[in-house]
Design goal:
Length: 133
Amino acid sequence: MTGSEERAGPAVCIDTYGWIEHFTGGPKAAAYDKVVASVDEGRILTPVVILYEVYRKIKATVNEAVAVRYVAALDRTRVVPVDREISLEAADFSLAHKLHFSDALIYATARRFGAELFTSDPDLKGLPGVTSI
């Protein structure tokens, strides 16, 4: 590992709730801001389903222009598409931990890349590789 890789830190994944808190200055924004600031943007994994969820939520509650701006910010992270393996792993995690579709996809993506998942979702609390905020 080179010195620059060490400074970059391990990969992290922030769930939808965390991004919305970060972007909108919600009650847990400071904690999520610290996570975002702790690693280079390229070391933040963003499962593609988070783009959908952030865009949908912000467009519905604020407006489309702001939603597009937040998605553009997420595009600076490492956006990870859903592939066959992630789909099947997500299904297994869903069955094993009773996770909803998007939670399972986000968790499977984080696990696939060895990223710590930061979340405030009680359904993910206590799972390996999850830090609850």
